[in-house]
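User: Before I run my own analysis I want an independent prediction to cross-check against. Here's the chain; please return only the structure tokens and, at the end, one sentence I can use as a sanity check.
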Amino acid sequence: MVDRLKGKIAVVTGAGSSGDGVGNGKAAAIIFAREGAKVLLVDMDLVRAQQTQAVIENEGGAAYAIAADVTRAEDCERMAATAISQFGAIDILHNNVGISTRADVLEVTEEQWDHIMAVNVKSIVLASKYAIPHMKNSGSGSIINISSIAGLRANSSTPYTTSKAAVIGLTQSMAGDHGPDGIRVNCIAPGLVYTPMVAPRMDDDLRQIRKNAAPLGSEGTAWDVAWAALFLASDESRWVTGIVLPVDAGLLVTSPVTYNRLSQQTHSGEG
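Assistant: Structure tokens:
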């Protein structure tokens, strides 16, 4: 630990893990705390958020857990207010919640479409809507959104691909809108990361295919995504905004395999 976020206040949505192990939001929250940030942990499931809180506090860090549905404006307003009441500021917002529905436009229902857009896109709008005024008051801030390589290349889940492409467009628009306020907005596009979310749907053969698909030939974890989030949250990226950062072992530059066997998503979360 080198205190890269010393004195910062971070809000992490999706801060619990959807199963045993460490998902993207949990990993980011733990790394942020290890680097000196005080972290508001937000999850639909309070117990999951409290489990992350316990890890952070056991390591000597500071965190506070709340339950919230970030597709609801009133919950996002309460989330921002809690960060201010508990810690006094919001310097970092890490929008991590997400789900996937495997379907094409003929198969997807209207309800499924609306739900995935609410969770994957609307949640970012609402969380940012209530965090940005506090960042403006302090003259700076960093917002990190989670997209996917599916937002950059077709995936056999049209609703998911569409939502993650929307996250990229939203990130770029927000970067332009709020750069004059000193607020940076970037997004990460994870590749075939092995997390508690995907573990139940992975056999050994599929895991090996995923490992071999990219040039680096290794399996990514939530920690790989979290280290990228740390860079974007820290002052090391002070001159970086509006970017899409793939964390995918080089998969995007070489392989179309994501469209075929590797799309095993059903209804699920990001981490």
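Sanity check: Residues 258-269 have pLDDT under 50 and may be disordered.
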